[in-house]
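INPUT
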Amino acid sequence: MFDATLVLIVLVAIHLAGAVAVYLTRQESLLTRQLNGIFGIAGGVMALILALIGLQRNLPGSGSTVLLSLEGVMPFAPLEFTLDRLSSFFLLLIAVVGIPVSLYSIDYMREYVSHPDQPGAHAYNLGLFGVAYQIFILSMILVVLASTTFTFLFLWELMALASYFLVVFEHRHRDTQEAGTLYLIMTHLGFVALFIGFMLLSGPALVGNTTLSFSELRISALALPSTQRDIVFLLMFIGFGSKAGMIPFHVWLPQAHPAAPSPVSALMSGVMIKLGIYGLLRITLDLLGGGPGWWGGLILVVGGASALYGILYALVDHNLKRLLAYSSVENAGIILLASGAALVFWSAGNTALATLALVGALYHILNHGVFKSLLFMGAGAVLQSTHTLDMESLGGLIKRMPWTALFFLVGSVSIAALPPFNGFVGEWIILQSLLLSLALPSQGAHIFLTLGLGALALTGGLVAAAFVKAFGISFLALPRSAQADQATEAPRLMRWAMGINAVLCLLLGLLATLLLPALQGISRAYLGPDQPTVGLAISGLEVRTGTDFGSLSPLLLGILLALLALIALWGLRLAGINELTRRSMTWACGRFTLSPRMEYTATAFANPLKRIFAFLYQPVRALTIETPGASPHFAQDISYRNPVRLWFEEYLYGPVARGIVWLARRASLVQHGSLHLYLTYILSILVILLVLTRG
Amino acid sequence: MDYVAKFLIAVVQLLIVLGASPVLVSLIRRLKARLQGRLGPPWFQPYYDLAKYFQKESVVSETASWIFNFTPYLQFVCMLLIALFVPFYTAMLPLDATGGIIVIMYFFLLSTFFLALSGLDTGSAFGGMGSSREMTIAALAEPTIILAVFSISLVANSTNISTIILRLGSDYGLLFNPTHLLAFAAFVIVTIAETGRLPVDNPTTHLELTMIHEAMILEYSGRHLALVEWSAWMKLFLFLSLLTNLFFPWGVATSLDLLSFVAGLVIFAVKLTLAAGAIAFMETILAKVRIFRVPELLAGSFAIALLAIISFYVL
Amino acid sequence: MLTSDGFIRILNLLSVGVLVTGMLILWRRSLLSAVQIFGVQSLLLALMAVWIAFYTGAAHLYLIAFLVAAIKAVAIPVLLSRIIRRLDVYTEIEPYIGVATSLLVGAGLVVVAYFVMQPVADATNLPTHNALPLAFAMVLLGLFITVSRKKAVTQILGFLVLENGIFMLAVLATYGVPTIVEIGVFLDLFVGILIMEVLVYRINQTFESVDTHVLDELRG
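OUTPUT
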């Protein structure tokens, strides 16, 4: 029907034209925002078409088609783009998240237009934002299609730079600059690991070639000695893991996400960090073609640790966006855990379970993209309306922003993996794959999988607690500040964008059986047919795992829930219960009015868990009471701080950064600033060189 | 199984959980009273309570939002839904393939999630405190539940309730292995924590600082209170049914004939009476522990559940 | 030597029971009940020895079982309870590591024991070989109790649990070391406990505490 190559060319053209068009408009006009949104949506639709083409093709094995090979665009190496099943899936993710976010950005970015009454206060250059935004989306789309080493690394770097410019968009804030710098450093450390990894992977085949295509890499990877393969794997794991936000390379996430404009946070968290997973899957499943069991074990353990660490810090963070960022660390951890399990199963020769675990991982990638971008958009709506993200000054928003509250609630329920929403189906599949691990003969693997299961289960409960806090404290009860009191509902397009994602959360939950066969196809393409028994079987509305092990039919659950609700309502009415409601005040312990200061705060809510996990948080309790008069009983000002310890920042990055600064100081001794000194250096080097090269 | 039988079984499941859960609560209260040398409330007191709540108008806080009104209904429907998946007297559950034990646990979590939200919704400090504590306990109980479920599914090689009962019921030798017994011990502790019984939470207290579940529902009245209370009783009923039938599947009907149904009902009643007696006994001899000792209890149950799995692999 | 399903099943139940009592010692805060649980554990071990003796016909194990029951299940708990009562110490354990955490560490140690001992267990074909990792886990648990608790009495208890673990290993792996050695060990243990009792009493008199932390002050 559609020619994939043509679609790709149109897609690239749309985004490039979008970048130019947005830049040419008047920087503060509505048109700028509209054009940016429309070009983003159009590109997203093209990506969706391309994804559907790729998923529909019944290519044998992991077969793929080269879409486009461009010689001469870059001076020394051709660019080559290939569509296969894995890239199709990630294209789908980019499209599904990208379209609503682009829609959302139209109304959201007016935040940055200067107001007539206070000129220049908020003004930022929206034209430049549009350029970076279009290039960011384009580079993400192209990076999953890239099929030569050079193309991949070039686009990977382009994606990192475009996202850096988006993160530092609010460049007037010092925090933003620092967050951007940290992001830049971390992403380049990852890039170095990837660069070396790809060079080692190319092996002797690199000699005489400027770049290798992925199909050549597959062949050269087979010839590599096993230690070199291990090193390649470790480098790639670090490089892609740092993009995915796994510990200990997660430190940039909680800084960069709150600093970036909300649509960018949604894209980065919903899509970009998943591209780290894409890279890892591409390397381990495809290019290296699997490896020893400990590869999967390592990914599983680091994933489990990331999941726990992420959610525990989300629980005690009271900045709405930073909480979501930590939760992204957690979700990346869950995805890594499932992917690691898939590799463990695969290396043990059990492709049935490997498929099951990989389907779980892929489904969770898509689900997380949908609900996390929804939550970031909701947090953005709150920020736009109240100008704060501090949960301690929010509250009562459900009455002032009913739609935003509803959508945020849907996102929270989905991310807490509660039925009948999408998070539950993904979690169920991952749990099933781990529960089925008893089929494995290897004994060491049991322990890892059991611990992974324990970590996953603990994470599940803590996520529920964290999102009761996030939604309950921010949206329910009384507003805790004047800004929250005066909040107004988000503009129409933002509501639409959030609504689309909320509906998607429900649909992906209820109609999972429609999408799962495609994911199964992707997994089988790389892992091979199910052995020794069936892993995952989808029949009609029902998902089955193992031989008679577990089954789930999400749509039927949803229908039952609705049906029972109708029966219950009808039955209660039939029984003639009193349906009158009187509104009255909450009991305020005998006081006449309920003040927001009597409400439970986010800090108080998280405190029991903070005390229980005190060995990790090591909270510092600082209570100062100022009493102006003679009596100590009339306090004027009470301040209570209870910060937690950030282990990696304090013990890993702190010393390294100080060491580098120390070295730089030493090195600066030779930099004196005097011209004569520099000329002396040149002279002495010249003399030394001449002496050395004499013989 | 034809559709009429399926439909009838589903209806009977719902009727049992609706009708018998207040009786179970009454039984526990009366047994406890007897152990403490009191007479206890009348047998049908829970029904009288429900009838009275339902006849009164509901007073809803001005601060509260739709979440507050929505939660009791959601909770009620969740419990009814779970009742379709929990074996009482028969393992021939019509909708068994729709979801297994994991679905049950996540629907319980869904109702807890919303109850915690409605605790925060009124803006009262007690509600917030109750929510915070309830979510803390739920979060810590979750890993034990999953590991206990894992142990059962290891022994029975399934997560579907009917299959578990059929396989365990056909080979009693499976019941007497360490994995199964340890998983049972772990599950007992999480049952106590999840249903808010002593020593984790005191269902009869209204002392401000010790409440957990009662603090969350402090602002409810009228039909909302009736639904919340009824749901809590159903939750207890469902948890005890799971506990007794999953770990001791004796007498659960595995065929579709009237005799085994009647026998199943009688044995089910006996099992629940024993469980009620155990709870009454424990609540008589134990005092509520401090809230910060509860994690020790739950960590203990987690360790036991982990031992259960390890002993499966070792032995 | 016959192997049968029933023999192994009961043996496994007993070994898991012993391990569970080990975890219970970590769990309970009351010193007295920890001592009582130790008594129960020793009783279970004695039962295990009897069961193996009954099955394999190794008659000397009956004697050892009797000694275990008499010394470890009765005499030592009585002695320890006496110390606790006589010192009138605050009868709660004082852990360096919280109870919840130490339970998790305990479970982790069991995992480690399984990981380490599985090759050993697989190498033998004794009918009792499956329970070997559990016995080794008891040794690790005993060590952990010793290092993680402050009071001298709990350290004695940890040492005893460790000794129980070694005994369990010996019974399972070799059906008991020669009787004479075993009896010697028991006597040493008994005398050791008596000496420790006196020492603990002295520590308490000198420092008015049995917290071994105060011994740090003795260094020069």
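end of record. The beta strands of chain B are 58-61.
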